[in-house]
């Protein structure tokens, strides 16, 4: 399974980061990047979706490691392993609030790194195998239940603004939360009531009741500009005229 596991290293000491990368690669893992700043890590994770995040707890810059993780966890459910040297008790307690899978003390050795990553990978594998048998999305009348942090969370259909495709996943957007769904946009299209929800692009389903602007080539919901696909435009106009 190692060759399927992608790991992002967020560490501002480039010597430590390079050493980590070499060790992880030699163990058969794929390093998606070596990043020194929290802001860059947030952008990287949105684009690359690594399976595990190695995060320096005392990251320099405008965001430290814990603050960076808290922002990431609002959008992604990703296992965290903190890298730490001599953290004070207050920082350690804040780090614990983000429920990391492990802490690796610097300077680290290869055996410690190998065992820690292997344990997290096993947990990740168990979660993945369990999720294959659990429903990820259930739609009932005026509400949808989505799996989040191991439980089914209720959202009213009227709260949904739009749903965006992210490869084999979807991102469900409301005015308050984002939820990553482990299903395709096509699955969501089949589950949602077509009287309210319409696919306007290969990557987007929108809630017609939340539509703010209808232009020739795009729609707007809030401040989000969403393109209209050529093949979906006729269907969109038909649905609008039947509201």
Automatic annotation (TrEMBL):
<dbReference type="GO" id="GO:0003677">
    <property type="term" value="F:DNA binding"/>
</dbReference>
<protein>
    <submittedName>
        <fullName>Two component transcriptional regulator, LytTR family</fullName>
    </submittedName>
</protein>
<dbReference type="InterPro" id="IPR050595">
    <property type="entry name" value="Bact_response_regulator"/>
</dbReference>
<dbReference type="GO" id="GO:0000160">
    <property type="term" value="P:phosphorelay signal transduction system"/>
</dbReference>
<dbReference type="Pfam" id="PF04397">
    <property type="entry name" value="LytTR"/>
</dbReference>
<feature type="domain" description="HTH LytTR-type">
    <location>
        <begin position="144"/>
        <end position="211"/>
    </location>
</feature>
<dbReference type="InterPro" id="IPR007492">
    <property type="entry name" value="LytTR_DNA-bd_dom"/>
</dbReference>
<feature type="modified residue" description="4-aspartylphosphate">
    <location>
        <position position="56"/>
    </location>
</feature>
<keyword id="KW-0597">Phosphoprotein</keyword>
<dbReference type="Pfam" id="PF00072">
    <property type="entry name" value="Response_reg"/>
</dbReference>
<dbReference type="InterPro" id="IPR011006">
    <property type="entry name" value="CheY-like_superfamily"/>
</dbReference>
<dbReference type="InterPro" id="IPR001789">
    <property type="entry name" value="Sig_transdc_resp-reg_receiver"/>
</dbReference>
<feature type="domain" description="Response regulatory">
    <location>
        <begin position="6"/>
        <end position="121"/>
    </location>
</feature>
């Amino acid at each position: 399974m190692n060759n399927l596991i992608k790991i992002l290293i967020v560490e501002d000491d480039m010597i430590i980061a390079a050493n980590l990368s070499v060790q992880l690669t030699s163990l058969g893992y794929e390093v998606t990047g070596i990043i020194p700043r929290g802001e860059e890590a947030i952008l990287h994770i949105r684009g690359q979706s690594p399976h595990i995040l190695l995060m320096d707890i005392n990251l320099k810059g405008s965001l430290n490691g814990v603050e960076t993780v808290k922002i990431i966890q609002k959008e992604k459910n990703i296992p965290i392993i903190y890298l730490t040297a001599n953290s004070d008790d207050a920082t350690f307690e804040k780090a614990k609030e983000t429920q990391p899978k492990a802490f690796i003390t610097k300077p680290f050795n290869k055996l410690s790194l190998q065992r820690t990553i292997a344990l997290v990978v096993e947990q990740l594998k168990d979660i993945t195998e369990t999720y294959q048998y659990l429903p990820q999305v259930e739609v009932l009348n005026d509400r949808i239940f989505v799996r989040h942090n191991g439980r089914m969370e209720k959202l009213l259909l009227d709260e949904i603004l739009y749903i965006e495709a992210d490869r084999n996943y979807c991102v469900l957007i409301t005015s308050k939360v984002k939820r990553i769904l482990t299903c395709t946009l096509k699955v969501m299209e089949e589950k949602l009531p077509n009287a309210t929800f319409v696919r306007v692009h290969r990557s987007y389903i929108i809630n017609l009741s939340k539509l703010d602007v209808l232009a020739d080539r795009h729609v707007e919901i809030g401040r989000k500009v969403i393109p209209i696909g050529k093949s979906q435009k006729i269907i969109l106009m038909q649905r609008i005229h039947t509201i």
